[in-house]
Amino acid sequence: MSRPFFMCACWGRIPAGTGAIVPVSQIAATCETLFDTPDVAFIDVRSSKNNCFTFRILRDDKNSNIAERF
């Protein structure tokens, strides 16, 4: 990734304000922390400059029923 920072925001039945601007080197750790909340269905990674969608990270939990709630 050529940009130094991205915004990671999670979605699901979670409190507002969970998004964070993080350096590329911290995206994986930030996502792991966000997925510690069971109701996080997925995380969108967006450009921190223009807020453009970059990619989505889905929860890999075969026992979760989060998708059924949306």
Structure report:
- With 70 residues, this protein is mainly beta.
- The protein has one domain (5-62).
- It is built from one helix and four strands.
- The chain has one helix at 27-35; strands at 5-12, 20-23, 40-47, 53-58.
- Strands 2-1-3-4 form a four-stranded antiparallel beta sheet, with helices on one face.
- The longest helix is centred in the middle third of the chain and has 9 residues, at 27-35.
- It is globular and about 35 Å long.
- The relative contact order is 0.26.
- Residues 66-70 have low confidence and may be disordered.
Features:
globular, disordered C terminus, 4-stranded antiparallel sheet, 70 residues, mainly beta
List the helices and strands and how they pair.
Elements: E1 5-12, E2 20-23, H1 27-35, E3 40-47, E4 53-58
Antiparallel strand pairs: 1-2, 1-3, 3-4
